[in-house]
Amino acid sequence: MRGVTPARLWSFGLVAPPLVVALLFFLGPLIYLFYVSLHEASSTELYGARFTLANYAAVFSDPFYFLIIKRTLATASWILALSLLIGYPVAYVIARLPPAKRMLVMLLLLFPLMVSNVVRAYGWVAILGRRGVINTTLGDLGLVDAPLSLLYSTQAIVIGLLTILLPYMVISIANTLASMDTRYQEAAQSLGAGPVRTFVHVTLPLSAPGVTSGLLLVFLLTLSAYVTITLIGGPRTKLLVSLIYDNVVGFQWPQAAALAFVLLALALVVTALILAIMRPGRVQGSGR
Amino acid sequence: MSSPWSLPARIVRGIVVALAFLVILAPIVVVIIAAFSPTDFFKFPPPSFSLRWFYEFFRLENMRSAFLFSMQLALGAATFGALLGTLAAVFVAKRRGFVNGLLQALFMAPLVFPTIILGFALLLFYKTVNMPLTPGLLIAHAVIGMPYCFRTVLASLQSLDPAIEEAGQSLGAGPLRTLALVTMPLIWPAVLTGWLFAFVVSFGELNTALFLTGPGATTLPIEIFSYLQFQGSQLVIAAASTLQVGLIILIVFGVQQVVGLRRIVSR
Amino acid sequence: MRSPQGDVSLIGVRKTFGATVAVNNVDLDIPNAAVFSLLGPSGCGKTTTLRLIAGFEQPSAGDVFIREKRVTNVPPYKRDFSMVFQSYALFPHLTVADNVGFGLRMRKVGRTERDKAVREALSLVKLDALAERYPRQLSGGQQQRVALARAIVVKPAVLLLDEPLGALDKLLREEMQVELRDLQRRLGITAVFVTHDQEEALTISDVVAVMRNGVIEQLGPPREIYERPRTEFVAGFLGASNFVDGEVAGREGENAVVMASGRRLLQSDPSGAASGKVRIAVRPERVLLAAPGGDGIPGHVTHVIYRGSVTQFHVAGETGAVIIYVQNSSPEAQRFKTGDAVTYSWEAASGVVLAQGGA
User: Fold this and answer.
1) Which of C77, C87, C160 lies closest to B173 in CB terms?
2) For the domain that residue A87 is a member of, what is the CATH number?
3) Which domain holds residue B231?
4) Using the beta-carbon criterion (under 8 Å), do B124 and A26 form an inter-chain contact?
5) What is the pLDDT of residue B31?
6) What is the CATH number of the domain that holds B138?
7) DSSP E strand stretches across C189-274
8) Which of A138, A181, B71, B165 lies 20 to 30 angstroms, CA to CA, from C128?
9) Does A17 touch chain B (CB under 8 A)?
């Protein structure tokens, strides 16, 4: 055996710390969480001793859960569709800016992502709330008698999350478009395709990787955006993630764990769906 | 490149872009304007300029300590996460194969994993092993920050000429000295960029911290959130938010001075 | 098992990557103070052989020796060699002087001694003035010289060069070949040179090893490799070659009589080894072109290509398609046009009988 050299041993020592942390504080706790989801609740312990599938059965038999899952998916679909519809043209314009200008605009997009979501959600509360910019302005102008109720609805959640997550979509697509070899477009035009057909047959399929990563990011972040949903949607407009939080706070930990895995399953299914539709792999790799 | 768009199309396009930037940036701008208003409740436009709510912020013991705690936490978690991410990237960069692919997926996973579930899973784990609050939160944020550094450093390593490390070895530098004298000097801007993202993410992180904070160990975003939920939207929140934004601008500016803006934008 | 000799030896070295065999049972001693070239097409195993000597790859079987010491399991940084990389691999964060001094620093050579050695090395490659520059501020040729200085300053047992001139344009490359050769002679350093460029290998080497599919096909001085190729592959890889199939029909003094396409050819064969079916290789510049009528082989010109120093004639003849170079300084070069009837011939000593079955 010539396998184990000191250099190899040394490099395994290199990966040990991150590996231990990733296993002990990421993968391990998730496996433990799954284990807990298969147990009864307990009023004295973190979870009961008896094994049960009831926590999952509850999710699939209770029409309330069903309604919440449906609402979660509907909200996410709206956000995905709108962010793509708005994000793509914006990304297209940005990708065609000269590099210096493009960098500035990208920074303008990146900056909001660095600001805590609680600040941005609060910003929407300050704009749409009963004492927000819109209502006070309309009131001062005498256009409305009583403040309009603009927050606390699924529509408000869609608008809030859409604007919070839109930069991810724009940045993903713009990066793909900007790094795309313009010779592809030139080749298409040399073969007789006009601007529209060039876009539909060449640019659009080639941007699939950017669109895919944008869709995935927006979707996954939508699923777990508890704070934004709570601040903008209010106490009654609940999505799946709110139920997880409520169950954790209510010490129904096995049930919360089961819901967490339902959420993960949902994330996996939709991710697979997005990948199957977009097939980003077909244009990745070598094309030259 | 000449534009294939007609004039009306360009106008529509301009409006779409302007609108997109408006809705993306408006909430932050409104918060910052609100923070400087003198009134009890936000009036738009504010009648005059005042620092009243910033004084108020620093008068509130909870807010003040949350701000300091967040800063220390982000500093610690980003540094720890950057260290882990860099080590992982250095290991993964030169290897191929199935196991390596798995490792890479594992190190990247926290980036897209629903953070609230990670927070819950860690809460459960911490409760079981009696982990104290602050180190627990620090590790949680390091786990979330690690992929940012892993990603930037890995990209930087992969763009390095593989012969450069061999050159170090051919001249008699062992693996450790090659790492210290050849590789690190070339990838440190990526390490710093990754650190910056880890810092920013930790500083604004909400969904994991939601479950892992507690008395004496509350982050600013969580403090803002609970204040909003239970005390209504007083303008001291706007001031707190503005400070959050201000610190991020400061730190991005600082790092940008060292590594250049291009590296941050096209991480 | 034989014992290693000289600065570098490989004994029974084999290297596999999964199912592919990159280097297959290579046995060689590299002569001291010589330039030894590994020549072959991409994928022939020449670079892998070099990396096995360096220790960047571990042999699957066999042993590597540097100065008669077995280094098979010694990591690269503890082996006595230095290397010039194809991409130069200069450290971008270090100045030229620091790049050149790196190896000495690793060897714990003191500051003053190191500075002196660096200065000397830089003056050897004529870069004294650029010591404080950074690699990105240098031209390709200058970077190449820095890489060379960095490698020679440590006075290694063997200098490995992995296509070191590949990134330079033709003119600069030819200039550097001469310079490299000159420097190596002056320092008396043993060098292993990997290249896929046959002209470069012939120009620069004392010994050339032609590799193919992980095996050394032929090893010898440049003249021998070029003039007396043993296999069709070697004959074809080192410049153009014509091949004629025939059968030995008898002897005439030093020569064998070969019958090819019904023609009687004389082939030099002093040892009398040729027998049965043979394949003969003839270099295009060794074929003589003449007007019809003599006792040459008849044929007609199919293409005429002007190539600067020579004109290249393609002739369809009785022994098959033949390529012939005629020096443009000779009036013959302009005598024939496409379609002309011609005859061609070569001297008995110009042909080489190739080994059977090898190709």
Assistant:
1) C77
2) 1.10.3720.10
3) 55-265
4) no
5) 87
6) 1.10.3720.10
7) 190-195, 207-212, 215-220, 242-252, 255-260, 263-268
8) B165
9) yes
